[in-house]
Amino acid sequence: MGIVYKAMDERDGRIVALKVIRETEAKGDESATHVAEAHQRFQREADILRGLLHVNIVDFYEIGEEDGTPYLAMEFLEGQPLGAFEGRPWPETLPLLIQAANGMEYLSSRGIVHRDLSPDNVYVVEKGGERIVKLLDFGVAKLFEKASGSLTATGFFLGKVAYGSPEQLGSLGQEAVLDWRSDAYSLGVIFYQVLAGRRPFEGRVPVELIAAHLGATAPPVAAPVGAPPLPIELVRLVGAMLEKRREDRPKSYREIIDRLVTVLRDKGAAAVDVSASGANRTPRVLDEGALTSPTSLIGSSGSQLTTLPGRTPASRRSVARAVLGSALALAIFVGLLVFGPRGRDPEKTPPSRPVKALPKAAAGALRVYAAPFANIVSLSRMPANEAVPLEAGATTPQVLGPLAPGVYRIVLSCPALEGREVTREVSVTSGAPTLLVQSFLPPESLAETLR
Fold it and tell me: How does pLDDT run across 120-157, given as a tens digit for each residue?
């Protein structure tokens, strides 16, 4: 339908992704019909994108027209498609799948069916040393509460056959309407491919893929040779997402997210160590019983607040609040689940450079959570103000330890609020980890942001 250029907005120097309609060179009635449909889909994508604002959805800037050619200006993403991660150890890829499911839950809450999910439309970018998932390409998406002919089961299928749901390929009755469960099936195919390094069904021609999606049972997803085996809970979830009858699939994206987070929380730390070296992260399978660092789920949201220059101050504040709300809600959800009372045992998840070796019975730990995300500037043991070594770029949520019992002073800096710093003192005891929660927003603003 379109061509995407890397472009610069001459008004403010911002680099954007500029999408324009690819006009056909052929002439005649068939060409005119094609161009008209392309324009309709182009306008649909603009209408959908302008109403979306979420950390896991590509940012939309504006729609315009130049010399009769419509264009969309969107966030320019530097990264790679999710398919580039297929076959890697599941503890490394599971945080990406959680983010993709979070983005899809947001779309569903806005009444949107994507209808064209594939690994190419799930993009992974590096920001602040963390991997952030972005969903894109909404030219085929549609609001399902406004469903019409092209959204019904009998309508023309515009997505990619390898990831199409049985409903998209004709399993439903006359005029039956697609809903979010169709996307959940396509997301299940993507999950399968990332976890197993291959798709559940293959075919030499499209009709073979269609037949498989409609009638064949996918074999249980399994990790590639040499990778950590998949937890049975994860295998069951992917199998449920690939059920032929949509009624048999998970009941909501929230269920999918909860089950993914539970697997990562309960099984992930013991399976693989993912180094915190940004784009050069190399997964290393550990011996049984080895100690690992916590797997980071979400990076700092600060960069998201600076990607929309050129807007009025009022609109910038509105965008900042909306983006902050999305990131904060996601942070609180993951932070409480992964680092909450039922989270990891800090004795199993110390950082790679502890202060000193301590007997397990005497060791303590500090579990730090901030809303919004914060950088951990320093940690010192009082009253001598003895500095505790920290890993470069340490951010919240984070488990610090093992630590000797005592009073510690910690300095946190919030990138989303222009680096505002807060200093706290906390008493660490042996045994159970000490929880430190720091909100950089007043209670009324925090409640409004999360609403």
Answer: 999 999 887 889 999 988 766 655 444 333 333 333 34
Nearest by Cα to 390 from 413, 362, 417: 413
Active site residue 116: yes
* Residue bearing tokens 């993709």: 100
Do residues 23 and 35 make contact, with C-beta atoms less than 8 angstroms apart?
yes
Report how far apart, in Å, the C-alpha atoms of 79 and of each of 20, 32, 258 are: 21, 36, 27
Distance between CA atoms of residues 273 and 276, nearest Å: 9
Torsion sign across C-alpha atoms 386, 391, 397, 401: negative
Domain residue limits, the chain:
2-75, 79-285, 345-450
CATH homologous superfamily for 79-285? Answer: Transferase(Phosphotransferase) domain 1 (1.10.510.10)
Q: pLDDT tens-digit profile of 300-316?
A: 233 332 233 333 334 43
**203 phi/psi in degrees, rounded to 5:** -160, 150
Radius of gyration of the chain from Cα atoms?
Answer: 24
Please check whether the domain covering 2-75 is classified as CATH 3.40.50.2300: no
3-state secondary structure of 401: strand
Residue with tokens 């488990």: 399
Nearest Cα neighbor of 328 from 417, 221, 254, 262 is 417
What CATH number belongs to 345-450?
Answer: 2.60.40.1120
Out of 29, 47, 67, 116, the active site residue is 116
Q: What angle do CA 298, 302, 308 make, to 5 degrees?
A: 120
Q: What is the distance between the alpha carbons of residues 178 and 172, in angstroms, rounded to a whole number?
A: 9
- Preceding omega of 383 cis (within 30 degrees of 0): yes
* C-alpha–C-alpha distance, residues 323 and 304, integer Å: 7
Q: Strand (E) positions, 313-383?
A: 364-371, 375-381
Whether the CB-CB separation of 388 and 382 falls below 8 Å is answered with no
